[in-house]
Amino acid sequence: MTASSSAPSSADDAAAVLAAARRAKDAATSLATATRRVKDAALYAIADALVAREGEILRANADDVARVERSGATAAFIDRLRLDADRLAAIARDARKVAGLPDPVGEIVRGGVLPNGLELRQIRVPLGVVGIIYEGRPNVTVDAASLCLKSGNAVLLRGSSSAASSNAALVDVIRGALAGTELPVDAVQLVPGTGHDAAKHLTRARGLVDVLIPRGGAGLIRSVVEESTVPVIETGVGNCHVYVDADADLDQALTVLLNAKTSRPSVCNAAETMLVHAAVADTFLPRALAALREAGVTVHGDARVAAYDPAVVPATDEDWDREYLSLDIAAAVVDSLDDAIAHIRTHGTGHSEAIITRSQAAARRFVAEVDAAAVLVNASTRFVDGGEFGFGAEIGISTQKLHARGPMALPELTSTKWVVVGDGHVR
Amino acid sequence: MTASSSAPSSADDAAAVLAAARRAKDAATSLATATRRVKDAALYAIADALVAREGEILRANADDVARVERSGATAAFIDRLRLDADRLAAIARDARKVAGLPDPVGEIVRGGVLPNGLELRQIRVPLGVVGIIYEGRPNVTVDAASLCLKSGNAVLLRGSSSAASSNAALVDVIRGALAGTELPVDAVQLVPGTGHDAAKHLTRARGLVDVLIPRGGAGLIRSVVEESTVPVIETGVGNCHVYVDADADLDQALTVLLNAKTSRPSVCNAAETMLVHAAVADTFLPRALAALREAGVTVHGDARVAAYDPAVVPATDEDWDREYLSLDIAAAVVDSLDDAIAHIRTHGTGHSEAIITRSQAAARRFVAEVDAAAVLVNASTRFVDGGEFGFGAEIGISTQKLHARGPMALPELTSTKWVVVGDGHVR
């Protein structure tokens, strides 16, 4: 293809993305005032349709899986992409669960009466149009649609090309279900066009799209942040640390460390680095290194850690910054709580950081001085999750400081509006 | 100057801005754990120093004023730039007032105990480093520094070149005062370098600066939003409407309209467009047009408005989108509440929108369907202000939906952190 023929195609893509965003904005207007009853009915209709149209969804997914298998993708990648009847039923159940959650819209956040008699209320309202840019997990398509609909937002979904057929089928089912409800069909749309350009056009749709949430690897998130003039909520990259303090209960430390590293290594709240205070290194590290080895974990240690176990792989400078997402962990001995905090400040990604200690003073300092979405005392980093926090759902974990920080659920998909009621009041 | 000589100068500027941002980030670390007692002491020290060093501040300001006068600036521009002893005393009083406000840091936003016994608290923490990009109003220099210090943030100030000497003197006084306190001097810095480039480097300091708040005209705000990879909070542009409903109390309508337009035309919460329901046009418009004329207001009306008064200037398409910030108002007759809402949806900037009505149903629909930071019923748009809302201070009025919407005060200069405390809890 020549440059002259690709230019108009990109312009067409841009026009198609903007047209979809305009339809989403129109849909958002009626969604904003939809009652909970109407929104929940739509979610139940979607759940029913996902089950009723299982055959076509699974056929479309099989096409994606076959194509990706031919391209030589990893087993883990294919596993995230694959749907079966059980997984689809679980996705439908999740949509019903979102219907059961309280409606965030209309909630009064603050309010009262001013000295001059003006009534003032700050109420939750939908954001408007939410764009989700994500990788090859078809369950995100339904999750994101459910959460956005429940919070009164229209959603523009930009999935991975690896899941193109699955997403097309799922969104067709969702829109088919919406057609039988009082909500506008264009409340849920796939972003048209192909490849990186379609996502790029979405990042430039300022004024039509209210927020973009990239879900995926660090590269995807960085490129969205760099390109976007639409506000972005960064999610997910987690180089999480477990720090075993001089005053730690070492049994607790070992239990928490193993849980944080091995209970689900592929997720962002898994531990990626352990820091051990020098005062307990002699007693803790031999036990910990043996237990980690037994659990199949490769330890990338500094020289002081390596001295305890010849199986330790010498850590390079890169190891302190790596989000392994695998059965690997970086490990260092630190001489003080200060050094542990300084290490986390340098290498952490602001996701979840844990201290194991019996010392009230150490816990207090760690909580105050470590700058992260979540800081944990004597608990596994794996708890940092919307479901575990009792939110009932999660659209991602924000690692930025603006708007939302930590697990994001329905309230985080809203903005607010001030309502001021008077009786001819002037200033 | 040739291109080859300007390139290194820009690189030097960039390095200087990044170095300042790094110092700010270091300062933010100790600010984050500073107690209210320490922060308030610093604010009182700053207020005292502003009064004690009045002479040098006013001399620096006189230099700015003389230079700007020679360049032929408007009287309004010069008035915003000019300081005198009274104005400086008022600025110092405002810093003391901020000291008297509650500390937002540490406030527990949500909290409780999970079913598994984990204690969960969401607490307010500082954002970190806040960048303020603003135009030629030296009072903003002190206001922004006070609010950022009180909320535990370091601040990078990028003022206008027109106020360069004033800002340099003010920041020198502030830093001098900080040197005698427990807070780091680099908590308050002027962004080094000159011209547009210095602001631009600030917009690229991702990872060092946590949020940028542009305060000023639409052009400044748009350029910051377009260039920035740092999260931005948009402020200020207000094309605010007053809609006089078919069921309005017309005396109230006239009082509110005049207040919204004329009490301070140069500010963002002043009314810029009035919409009048056709059913009351015959009774309301002759009175309103006469009263506006008497108040010195030029009305830019559509044909139906112009029919009532030959002094009405025919409105062009641009008038519906203009933020006059002067004694001008656009005016149109609408045939329904729907038409009024549609007009506001097309032309509003999401700042403050008012309806005047006795109808509960009309008020309810207007509040629900108009998408703005503030919607007012039977009250002047001029009330949308941090001071009027009882916040004690204001760093700007956000017209975006993420993080903060409407008047922003101390809580809006914070983020949150989840604190999770267990006893060896694993998942």
Topology:
The structure is a homodimer.
Chain A: H1 3-32, H2 36-52, H3 54-70, H4 75-81, H5 85-100, E1 108-113, E2 119-126, E3 129-134, H6 138-150, E4 154-158, H7 164-179, E5 188-190, H8 195-203, E6 211-215, H9 218-227, E7 240-244, H10 250-262, E8 271-277, H11 278-294, E9 298-301, H12 303-306, E10 313-314, E11 328-334, H13 337-347, E12 352-356, H14 360-369, E13 374-379, E14 396-398, E15 406-408, E16 414-425
Parallel strand pairs in A: 3-4, 3-6, 4-5, 7-8, 7-12, 8-11, 9-10, 9-11, 12-13
Antiparallel strand pairs in A: 1-2, 2-16, 14-15
Helix pairs in contact in A: 1-8, 2-5, 2-7, 3-7, 5-6, 6-7, 10-11
* CATH homologous superfamily designation of the largest domain in chain A: Aldehyde Dehydrogenase, Chain A, domain 1
Number of helices of chain A: 14
CA-to-CA gap between the ends of chain A? 64 Å
Biggest beta sheet summary of chain A: 7 strands, parallel
CATH architecture descriptor of the largest domain in chain A: 3-Layer(aba) Sandwich
What is this structure, in a nutshell?
The structure is a homodimer of 427-residue chains. Chain A has 427 residues and is of the alpha/beta class. Chain A has helices at 3-32, 36-52, 54-70, 75-81, 85-100, 138-150, 164-179, 195-203, 218-227, 250-262, 278-294, 303-306, 337-347, 360-369, and strands at residues 108-113, 119-126, 129-134, 154-158, 188-190, 211-215, 240-244, 271-277, 298-301, 313-314, 328-334, 352-356, 374-379, 396-398, 406-408, 414-425.
Question: What does this entry look like structurally?
Answer:
2 copies of one chain form a homodimer. Helices cover 44% and strands 20% of the residues of chain A. Chain A is an alpha/beta fold. The longest helix of chain A is centred in the first third of the chain and has 30 residues, at 3-32. Mean pLDDT of chain A is 94; it is low at 1-8. At the A-B interface, strand 2, helix 10, helix 14, strand 13 and strand 16 of A face strand 2, helix 10, helix 14, strand 13 and strand 16 of B. Strand 13 of chain A pairs parallel with strand 16 of chain B.
